[in-house]
Specification:
Jelly Rolls, 19 helices, single chain, about 650 residues, Chitobiase, domain 2, 8-stranded parallel beta sheet, TIM Barrel, about 25% helix, 7-stranded antiparallel beta sheet, alpha/beta
Amino acid sequence: MLSSILSIILSVVGPQVLVPKPVQYVISEGQCVLDSDSQVKVTVEDGKLSKELRNLPKWSREAAYKMVITPDRVEIRAMTETGAFYARESLVQMTAISDTLQCCTITDWPRFSHRGLMIDISRNFRDKDFILKQLEAMAMLKMNSLHLHLTDDAGWRIQIDSYPELCKRAAWRIGETYVDWCDNGCRYSEEYSPDACGGYLTKEDCREIVERAAQLHINVIPEIEIPSHSREVVYAYPQFACETPSGEKVMNRDVCPANPEVYDFFETVLDEVMEIFPSKIIHIGGDEASRQGWKSCPHCRQFMEDMGYTDVAQLQSHMTARMEEYLRSKGRTLLGWDEILEGGLASDAVVMCWRGAESCLEPIMAGHDIIVSPSTRCYFDYPQDAPFREPVAFGSYLPLEVVYSYNPQDPSIDENALPHLLGVQGNMWTEYIPTEEHAEYMLYPRAFAIAEIGWTPEEERNYQDFHDRALGLIETFHAKGYNTFNLGAEYGDRYEAEHPLAHLAVGKNVSYAEGCSYDSSYPASGDVALTDGLFGSWAFKDGRWQKFYCDLDVTIDLEKVTSVHYVGATFMAQRILGIAFPAKVEIYSSIDGARLEKCGESTYRMTDKAQSTGDFMDFGCPVNAEARYIRYVARRDKTPGHAALFVDEIVVN
């Protein structure tokens, strides 16, 4: 009997299953069996709906819809084809589960105008078919912006007729994956070489992507990196590189901002890109320029003298301003990562903020439109579950719940500036994502969360409700051929992080030896962090891990002579980020703080394959001593790539 009842319940589907969650819906009596397109009536340019939603911003009204499901039909009303399309996508989600729909009325509109995903196809190339497939997924989620990262050191990925060497030489490399390429010395290859790996999008590929995206009401934003992340450009065209005082080419990732030919190159490239991509905004990157070659380049130094510049950062500002002016002359708007703010920026440029809340405040208060994509919430190359269960990944633990909990509307943003907050975007960098299946695994269901953040009002969002709906949508994605993370089998956060520990050193004073200080970017809770009883999560950015670029050498004062039986601490390692286990740990005890007795030590020998993602290890030993003072010393591994120590708590029992 129970199974029969459940079968009947599950065969009727209503708006409760939708991702993103609709703004409003009202359930009514009855069901509609939808077995013919003729049952769906669509009215566009609906004046009644326009009047009903007159207080919404114009862009939001244009994407709004009302859908009324009655026992014999589905009526869709919208102001534009975009709104009608989103209503149909709601139907797609529901009918993927059952053709029997719960009668209801849905009134729905987006919270933000930009609801985006970025896919990096440079580090590991993804072809046209993969991109087209992701567009279909985005449409189902009512996302409207696909940002394609087309160029970077690891490969140029778009056909440019005026500079054919970009695709003949810089789109191909030795090494099937980005990691292979790095391990092989970052070598490029000729297109038809037997060892060549890579590829690029032809102009016809790009046109097909843009055409399909337009049908799905998605804008495609191309990104051409300027002036850095351009090692492949310098390789294909060495004349764009800086020079040393002796005239040798500086073959790094920065082009020479003092070379007039560099500006001609990028303007020509942008012309060909804009011919294909109608997007109003064009992304020029602008992040992470090293500027090292500029300091000694005689051309840069002369240019700085001519312009009255005193800092090489002004060279990048000059280049950004030139590109902004050029794009504006073509009726387009410059978009760049938040580093483009350094040195000033034209007011109509759009800033993509990836470095946290602080990077958002300056541009939005200065009147710039911004798109938020903070790495701590929106970077999908980060691992989404316990590291011992996940493939190798870059960055800090970022589970679905943490993504979903993000609210782009930071309380520190003045209410009058909120119209400049265009929206939110999830970014998938692909250095450690070599296959299509892996890419989808990293995207979904975290992209579901970005879609709901961008669409659903903050007060209507609830993680447990979303989690249940995401589980259902994952089944739909599987049926459509997508690979996703197994949310139903999620391991979750580190157990210790959720269970504070009482031990002898909790609340006791910690003295840092001379020359030993924690890094200001990862202080945890400061001088009390190592004895506060709190353990870190899988995420090194959680505010509980303390970072050291030196040997850790601290002394804990237990305040009185105490029987001590064990001393130890947990360290995190992530080789690809330069976070390593200590090579050696030494533990000392003392009654008076002057005479130290060595209680024990432990050593660790690195291997090439160890610590490739996130590893955690306790470094401690039995003590069995009477002591008031405990000295804990962790010595760094001095081999390359082992720059930092991360530790959360020193436990004394």
